[in-house]
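Usage example:
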Amino acid sequence: MRVLFGGDYNPEQWPERVWKDDYRLFDAASINTVTLGVFTWALTQPREDAYDFTALDAAVTRAVAEGRTICLATGTGAHPPWMARAYPEVTRVDFEGRRHRYGQRHNSCPSSPAFRRFSAAVAGRIAARYASVVTAWHVGNEYGGACYCPLCAAAFRRWLRERYGGLDALNEAWYTRFWSHTFTDWDEIEPPNALTEHWRGPDHTAFQGITLDYLRFTSDAMLANFRDEKAAIRASSDAPVTTNLMGMYKPVDYHRWAPHLDFASWDNYPPDDTAHARMAFTHDLMRGIKGGAPFWLMEQTPSTTASRQVNPVKRPGVMRLWSWQAVAHGADAVLFFQLRASRGACEKYHGAVIGHAGRDDTRVFREVAALGAELRVLGGVTLGARTPARVALLFDWDSWWALEMTDGLNRHLRYTEIVLAYHRAVWACGTDLDAVAVTADLSGYDVVLAPALHVLADGVAERLAEVAARGGTVVVTFLSGLVDAHARAYLGDPPLTSLLGVRVDEWDSREPATVNPVTLPGGPDVAARLHFDLITPVTAAVEGVYGADFYAGTPAVTRNEYGGGEAWYVGTALEQAGVDRVVRRALDRHGLAGPYADVAGLEVATRVTADGVPLTFLLNHRDEPVEVVADRDATDLLTGAPVTGGATLRLAPKDVLILR
Amino acid sequence: MRVLFGGDYNPEQWPERVWKDDYRLFDAASINTVTLGVFTWALTQPREDAYDFTALDAAVTRAVAEGRTICLATGTGAHPPWMARAYPEVTRVDFEGRRHRYGQRHNSCPSSPAFRRFSAAVAGRIAARYASVVTAWHVGNEYGGACYCPLCAAAFRRWLRERYGGLDALNEAWYTRFWSHTFTDWDEIEPPNALTEHWRGPDHTAFQGITLDYLRFTSDAMLANFRDEKAAIRASSDAPVTTNLMGMYKPVDYHRWAPHLDFASWDNYPPDDTAHARMAFTHDLMRGIKGGAPFWLMEQTPSTTASRQVNPVKRPGVMRLWSWQAVAHGADAVLFFQLRASRGACEKYHGAVIGHAGRDDTRVFREVAALGAELRVLGGVTLGARTPARVALLFDWDSWWALEMTDGLNRHLRYTEIVLAYHRAVWACGTDLDAVAVTADLSGYDVVLAPALHVLADGVAERLAEVAARGGTVVVTFLSGLVDAHARAYLGDPPLTSLLGVRVDEWDSREPATVNPVTLPGGPDVAARLHFDLITPVTAAVEGVYGADFYAGTPAVTRNEYGGGEAWYVGTALEQAGVDRVVRRALDRHGLAGPYADVAGLEVATRVTADGVPLTFLLNHRDEPVEVVADRDATDLLTGAPVTGGATLRLAPKDVLILR
Amino acid sequence: MRVLFGGDYNPEQWPERVWKDDYRLFDAASINTVTLGVFTWALTQPREDAYDFTALDAAVTRAVAEGRTICLATGTGAHPPWMARAYPEVTRVDFEGRRHRYGQRHNSCPSSPAFRRFSAAVAGRIAARYASVVTAWHVGNEYGGACYCPLCAAAFRRWLRERYGGLDALNEAWYTRFWSHTFTDWDEIEPPNALTEHWRGPDHTAFQGITLDYLRFTSDAMLANFRDEKAAIRASSDAPVTTNLMGMYKPVDYHRWAPHLDFASWDNYPPDDTAHARMAFTHDLMRGIKGGAPFWLMEQTPSTTASRQVNPVKRPGVMRLWSWQAVAHGADAVLFFQLRASRGACEKYHGAVIGHAGRDDTRVFREVAALGAELRVLGGVTLGARTPARVALLFDWDSWWALEMTDGLNRHLRYTEIVLAYHRAVWACGTDLDAVAVTADLSGYDVVLAPALHVLADGVAERLAEVAARGGTVVVTFLSGLVDAHARAYLGDPPLTSLLGVRVDEWDSREPATVNPVTLPGGPDVAARLHFDLITPVTAAVEGVYGADFYAGTPAVTRNEYGGGEAWYVGTALEQAGVDRVVRRALDRHGLAGPYADVAGLEVATRVTADGVPLTFLLNHRDEPVEVVADRDATDLLTGAPVTGGATLRLAPKDVLILR
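Running the assembly step on the lines above writes:
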């Protein structure tokens, strides 16, 4: 048993004579796992009434013969051409209201009976045929997007009936007395899009209520597709079923999916090569989907992506470092898209372990093979190990959606940027963190962060208060807790008022170029931007004040003692240094900062094995070497060398150290 | 009798128990006026064959009981959901040719028989029910947008038949021999949009003629909707009828509406907090709709808007200052949107006199209440007073439309920017100005400004010449007078040639970064940008010359003596300082500059009461105090204190002084 | 016989009384040619079953009477309104899938049977009527755009059947096993657009194969329209037939059209006034369409265009200089759009020889008349002369399309910018160049440039190798030769590997702001941007190396000796100075640099008359005078003055000299 290593492999795209070369190179790179069949539906079911497993049989048989672990896809991430022609309703209607015709992928209407019937049927057939050789099932692919067709409209109405019971409740929830929108018949309700409630795009809606519900409905509709196939698989196989999630992917609320995934897996394509902290957070979020259980890194590129405007290669050492980062945060599998490059179509220049030339003397292949060798050395020690976090961050798709679709806020605010700033402050301290849903059990955490938690669902205020009441520390920011699950403003003082000990009557918004300096204890003034709460303290102590504008001298940051604990309120978008100072205060109150909290660019993450042994990962993201002092005796797992407490640990640029 | 003070109030959106608080707070803020029912259609007519006045009865009864002046809306600014389902043609087809489905507001096809029938019917019912308690009627809401549906196409063809009689005249007017467009049947004519004559958007048309006519048709079609409802109201009520206009709103030519409005009212949402002069001009324009009669400020926000990318709050004192500015320019009502904040939907974060928390100890409420108290002190002295302007500026929707839709001009030119520069030069001098249509009587003005008057309708050249002939001064800019009402270039020397005394054979256009310095007498060179006429003087004197490019040394600004007067021609887009110098020459010729013409940021405006008493408003828009010397004995109307000629008048930042 | 001089003339747009003035002014400007009838279809065929030649008869009769050469258009560049109403399928469906209705021009579906029938019929009628007086036929106008309607879909499927025979070949060519796209029925294939395979726009496709084929199909469909009309003309007339091409116009592959044009003509509207080299190249490309035979400059503006955001006038002397540039590169006609300005519609402010005022004392008219006089002096000496180029540049629409539609490359790369940099290096040396298709005979060239030749069709590698093998020099850049005609990557080492002597395993892409300095012999380091090949030399010598990033010190530019010649490889986008140094090495190897190769801004071009006499054109594009030494005895053709070898030649700014 060791970390699964390999990735997406599509041998049906090239002649069988090449497969021999492929497996020779897989051996050379210690690749033990292949994901097969991700887009083979048109081959497997060449017409409505016929299945043909020739291609998949060949690929699976060869993988079995070569002794690889198989992750087998149901192949339903794109429907075959014949289906779109025979059932035009299987294609989607887009946000602009346009019925698409055949093309691309992720192109199926989730409410289409034809798609649901055919996808479940093919998944069932595949499961029946290959159950005996499959380690894990991969359903669909990167679920996402949305459909606005009449079938979805009808399904949405059914979904609403179940949720609201009657139109009175719906009208109340959506606040339809505004702008004369009172609905008197379910059939009057249209999907919210460019032809109905939206203008400019998905983030501008006349009614947040309907748009929030359509996002929830869409998440659920795709989840139903996943569940259709999973149920069909279960008829033949008990192997675990997953689908490849996409990290912080706005259109789908993965917390709604969590109960239905047997394990979490995700595709890591960071926006740039300085996204270390962002990736760390996303790993934490994906791990959080399944309550902290290990996940699979289902896809990453060995070198470049193909879909960006500009696609730089990963610098030497970066692929290795980021692979180890995944393991450090809970991955039990490190997989690539793609093992061999396609000859044609839009991903032909996406990075691959084996390029068009089929060579093993390339830089990319050499780095992959070296990582494979290291993972072999590591063996199974990390498998199943868990992260011992004492800090939780509440991540909430409802708040993400609401915050970015609501008029009257600053349109330059981005939910994930606010969240990432608070995560980064924790990450920089080498402190483990869980990113969890607002429904998660908070009783095990010392510190709970609630950045930009705009939507405050029922009970969350009480549960945050409990954290403080039992001595914990809560950190809340501007725009949190103002609206209910239907994005309706709370009347009177909002629910978090007593916990935070402040009142906010109004806020100011300014263009990105405007900076207001905030004075915080323990360092120079820090810049605040975009949003500025005008705060009236009620019971809270003032911790930071604005330095400019007509509200100069008024509070920007407060801290309220509550029960045995305390609650911070940060009323503006502080630059990172400001967030760092607030968060450090919260961590230090509980002694949670790590030994290398002040070493920039050195990530520290911990996993604890099933038998309670902590494994510490040190990851040097810098382009320079880093030296730190070992804080205890340990073993270097990659070299086997002993490490003595107090000795100097030296990490080369992009290097990694795993200490047990 | 005093200035009406209050605003939009939608009590149907919250429980009746809250209303008591609302009125208590209205009393505390001296609010005497409520606008009711602006979006209540779905409540008032819950289905095609039923009316239900429960909600409106309750709101009106309470307002009557509380002794408020009522401005009652017909509520037709958004149709109810059932109407869109039963009559899908009641929704609009947009510029892209897409039929919309139910959503948003301002969503009705103006040509739809169903909408016309239902809107008139509901207006009639409301008028019949509430005539006895209503001070003014508010029809629809912020008319605007456009529809491109088949019903509008048919209505457009009828409109064209009436205007042109036959196709020969239409072909001639639209110049259809170009690009093989000769129409041989009325039904061949399509609304000009993205699927027909346009590319890129509304400002790029193959034929200006058809696009101009469609804009006029659309203005008229919406006006017909207004007239439908007004006629229905007149069956029961003689109270004045208005609708809330939107200032410089491009899609609707308010001058076409003027005869049908009983009084003008408008919603003032300036683009930023430095728009003093722009607002002043817009007040002048709105006052000009009804020949200078007082208007209502129907909406302004007490604090923030919600619809912008970034929504700053009005700084302390700004709401008061801008309210007084409205009065200074002719407002007899100062109303807010909104008196209490909605809990949900896209305007929930729009500023409100009473916020979600329902408090009276907020900054915003305190400022509103203080203004209410001041207005009470003022009493009725300003009511009905008029502006004694000797300067007119010709504002022309046809020119706005033509200038910005015509290929071959500089696409960076904006009609309103050119107009505002000429207004600002007058405004800065403390000189009153009327913004009037090209059809207005010009006989009462000493100075007439015609900036960017691209379209020269029949007779306007003659009437401008008369102004000069009788000793007045005319100021004309580049791109004026080149085309007729169908946007066809005049052949031969264009009509303004003899008045201006210049010939323009060609012009140069350059990117915004290119500056040509222009030498004008009386100061340093000023920058010119974007458009550069190459001028050949015929009888005119050269007043300014270009300093660069191959036309260096040739005229940029000229002045032509004509009759007893003179006509300036400014052939390029001068920076403000250049416009100021030209306009000051024109004003000084008639002694029209005010006493504080050189005090930056101090606005001076005058209203003359019915009995001939001038009231002078001094408005300090600066963030610093201003001191000036009183030019005569007077009374400070807000304090009642006497002012002696020669004494120092001190205005705090954002302060206002009203002298009688 | 002399150079044809004149242009588009649309007298049907204004009263006949004006025509007399027009011809008087034509005489004054030595205008001998008029292009008539370009948009007269609606007049010529006012309804389906009727022709009316009144207007065209009048225009043609007058031109004949006035003794002008007539280029007669078929007028089918825009269909009449009645046709769109009677045959709605004659209008196009756009990339967004929207059926357009009547409007604009270039608006006909090329696959519409109605359009094909009517256009051929009207062309035939016109040819029959006017054959005796016409010198050349002008079919349609500026063919371009695309249609995505069901008729085009059906025609595309027919086109594919002819090309591929069966679906297996098509699936293989398009690589449809990717993303489950295997087609099992021809009718499943949809035109690639925003509703099928594309996202963001025309440059983002899931499958390059289908998009490439649709571009080829569209080129061929429009060519079929041209051929329809040409065949109809041939029934009555043997006069040469052309259409006005548009230079580097991406949507249409003019090389596919070449066999069907009797001569090339094109419309020269450069993007700005510093486009000298670009225009020179475009002339070379248009001349290359017909194997180097002289072409017509069918349109240029005498002063301004109207369609840009900003439309500067041509500075004094520029129109003359650019007209001579056309002649220098092979034009036997210099024509304007337009001789008289339209009064209305979107081109009314496009420059015209005669403006709205009808004057002859304008700057523009004077410059046109002066050029007319010069052309008269020149007489027929240049007619039929050809360009003696020893350098060829391969210009390839397939590569243009593929390079800019493929994911995984740097989206900031522009095919024409890369091509133009290599042309400019040749042009700056005063070296004549032919821009030719990849199918052209290369045996006559010493140097062949293949910049960004992404698509390497069958046989091209061999033919480039032959150039080097016989002693020539080949220059190839990054991203060349990687894919076949279906945009499928070559497997194994790509075909140019042995010629170039290098291997490229991967490349790096960076944002435009990132610069990597490249060290080249013979000068300071040059900047490289956007794309950086990581090159492994096999047999090639290293000529330039990167100075930065992890590949610092590795090759950026190589040179490989091959047979008697050599092949350069440039693996990155060098700034112009770098390209210049590489190209100069190639030219100098064959002694091809001209005598004034180091004089910036002085263009030198040669034409050789039928009797072998070289004519040298010197064109001074600078704003300063230029002095050079005559390299031989000659005659100045415009003045008749003798020039002695060794004497100083002085050219004023924008001046031209023609030496025989």
